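Appendix B, example 12.
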Amino acid sequence: MGAVSPTCIETLMQPPTDNSNATTCNVCGTQFYPLWNLMYPGNMFSAKCSYVSKLVPLLEYRTKMAEIVDATSTNVEKGDDFQNPGLWRHDMYKHHYREDRLGITGLERYSNEQWIGSHPSIRPCDLMGVNTKLVPHAKFFRRKKRLLEQSVASPAPGALLGGGNWFRFDKEVFQDKGVRHSGLEPPFEYFLTPGILYRFYKIYGIFPERDSWIWEYYPEGTAWRKKLFESVFFANGTLDESRVW
C-alpha cells in the first residue's frame, strides 16, 4: 500500500517487542476510525502485505457489504421512527442514517475506504496519539501536514468511545441504548460490538483472536468473546448462527 509517512513505515517494520504478535501494528495511518466501520478516512494508510493478503478482493467486499446492509436494515430508510427495529438497531447514528446512509454503512464508493479495516486480525496504529476527539473530515484534512510530520505512531484507537467528542456519534444514546444493545440479547446495535462481529463473520467466516484489542475496546466485548469461544454455539466446529444473532 502507498506509504502515509516514514513514521508509519518504520512502525510497520519494527519487530515485536515481546512474544505477543498483538503488540505490533499491521496497518498505520493518519487517524483510525473505530466507527462507523473500522477505517482510515481518505484511504491514507500503509499496511503490511501479510495483512492485506488476508482481505477479500475489493469488489467482493463491496458486494458482501451490500448484502450485509440489506440483511440488517430495518424500515428506517422508509421513514420509520426506529420504534420497531427488529433484530438490529442503528441508534448510534440514527440522526445521520437517512442523510448519509451510504457513507455510514460503507456502501458503493465508501466501501473502498472501509475495505482496509474489514479483517478481524487488524491491529491499527495512527499518528494521533491519545486523542479525545474523532476529528471531522474537513478539520482532519486541514491538520494533515502536521499529522504527517509526527515522529511516533501509537496503537489505535487512542481514546475510549465513552470519552471525548466523537464525530456524529450520539454520546448520550451510546451511554443509554448503545451499551445496552451491545449485549447478548436482541435488538443488537449494528455500529457497536454485535454488528462489528457480525460483519467480520459474514465477510470472512471468523472472529478476532482471543487477544485482539477489539474485545476490550467495545462495549460488552468480553461477554461476546466468552459467548463465542466458551459456549456451545459451535457444533462440530461450525457456528450455529441462529443462536448468536
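Confidence is low (pLDDT under 50) at residues 76-84. Residues 48 and 90 are 32 Å apart (CA to CA).
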